[in-house]
Amino acid sequence: MNISDFSFDHGIFALILITPLFLKHWISVRKAKLTKQAQDRLVDSLVREGFNNWYRVYVARASHFSKSHTLIEFEARGVLVNLQDQVRLIAEFPSGECLDKTYPKENLRLRWIGKKWPASSSLAWIAIGSDEDKLMLSADAASNALQSSEATADMCLRIDTEFRLPDNARSEFALEKNPVSLTVVLAFFLLLTFALVDGIALNKYKLLATASMQFGFPILGLPALMLCVFPVYRLLARAKVPVKESLTLSLLVSIALCLAYVPAIKRIDQLLSDTGFQSFAYRLEKKASLEPLSSGPPTIDYAGRKEYWAQFDEGSVHHFDLVHGPLGLWQLDHSETDQKMRQFYEGRRKNKK
């Protein structure tokens, strides 16, 4: 088996887990593209009629918007026309149903909704009309959270100059001001720092891959850590962190957990080992493979360094320091051997010159 840092390929499994989280974004983009053509036809019609004070909007009926399981918040893309005494909303739904409503400005019943939660996207919403004909609107300006809030707030004030916006209407979500998102961010950086510093710089022991690892511990730990993306996402959503920030943070933390996993279990196994490191005798075989002379330790494969081991006779005995703890891992102290190999290859490079 090869010496490695236990870097197994979990790409397919990770893709299966992450795909549902990106499904919403793909459907949203697809739906927006399909409804754009209908919206363009409405705009062309208004321009021909001489209207010039209008806004592109996303539209959702209250019954659709209130559904917690709805992947996409909007139902259609329409046009809001700002007239002198009233506003007119025109939209065409994917089903072919057309909507054409007018609301007197003296009774718009505007309400600022902001981001829908917990199934929020980056859109900021307002409600217009009474219970019977209430509609949810968002300015069709950009997918960026701050731009959506600003555009929707501006549209709201232009159709009703006396409307009072909430103080946070134009503000962007700040991760550092939410204790849950701040904790997750700090956890990500701590895990990443540990993975890089301890996993690469400090720990001189390398994990030896064994046949038992393929379907057992610790290989099963990585898929379990990938599943953490879901509880972390739910935790952030409950704390009213917007969906894009929640999705990004939950994915980053899961990745950091996976990166820190191997360095962590290596350290734990070292600390729990009753014997500490022990010296084991190995016999050099063909193709730079070293076989243990005693039962227990795994094979050490230096196939990538055949030139170095070619200087030794086949069957020669070499000693290596290994740590074996209660987690069942075998870890090799490779520092001394690596130093010798560096000196060997540096000497070869100098001789070639």
From TrEMBL:
Can you say what this protein is called? Uncharacterized protein
Protein keywords: Membrane, Transmembrane, Transmembrane helix
List membrane-spanning regions. 6-23, 180-203, 215-235, 247-265
Q: Which organism is it from?
A: Undibacterium curvum
